[in-house]
Amino acid sequence: MFPELKWYYVVVAYILAPSLSFCNAYGAGLTDMNMAYNYGKVALFILAALAGKNNGVVAGLVGCGLIKAIVSISSDLMHDFKTGHLTLTSPRSMLLSQAIGTVIGCVVAPFTFFLFYKAFDVGNPDGEYKAPYAIIYRNMAILGVEGFSALPQHCLQLCYGFFALAISANLSRDLSPKNIGKYVPLPMAMAVPFLVGAYFAIDMCLGSLVVFAWHKLNSRKASLMVPAVASGLICGDGLWILPSSILALAKIRPPICMSFQATN
């Protein structure tokens, strides 16, 4: 169906998938957030650059969808395990159920896709199924084909710096004594606010303070009720929505702005 996606690109995607799936499962366990779309974007840029200008856009888009689908399963499995832990469900039963559901999805999902693809005008801006994200991902694939020169100024330098910071933080946390290493921040948890916004860090900070105080006041009740209370607080816009609304009513803008601009 997509001749631009050569078989060796699929091999590259499956080589990248296990490590990205592990990272996504680890991040979902820490933050309860599925970052499969962001890992798919990484694969999009890599495959688009490998395929070149002639086939890079289509190859990058299909490879992105392939990686996203594979990586997303790891996050779903982590969420199932966390739910099973709270409900005292057997982990083996959860894993077996996930495997059976994945096998069924391999048959049902293609039929569902072709049903929508053939029956409806998918992608038409004036139709019912506009697919607005298709334009966004296509533009990202075009950037990937153009190479590093299309990225914002100092983008690669920032990536190198934060990558080195993450590696050094992980090494210092793993190699330091436990009484010292526990105070080293987790790079995976630090990365989430950079993607979804600083409000996430504020929500997590306030929630951690509540959990800490609750354990000090009544440790037994806190251990039982914290997951349920946290689930209720996660639903909706989070704790930051209240101060954010107050700042918006007061017409106070954030104190820090950052933009990438070309310099002469």
Automatic annotation (TrEMBL):
Pfam families, A to Z: OPT
InterPro entries associated with the record: OPT, YSL-like
Cellular component aspect of the GO annotation: plasma membrane
Residues spanning the membrane: 6-28, 95-117, 150-171, 192-214, 226-250
Domain of life: Eukaryota
A GO BP annotation: seed development
Compartment(s) of residence: Membrane
Descriptive protein name: OLIGOPEPTIDE TRANSPORTER YGL114W-RELATED
Keyword Ligase among UniProt keywords: no
Protein keywords: Membrane, Transmembrane, Transmembrane helix, Transport
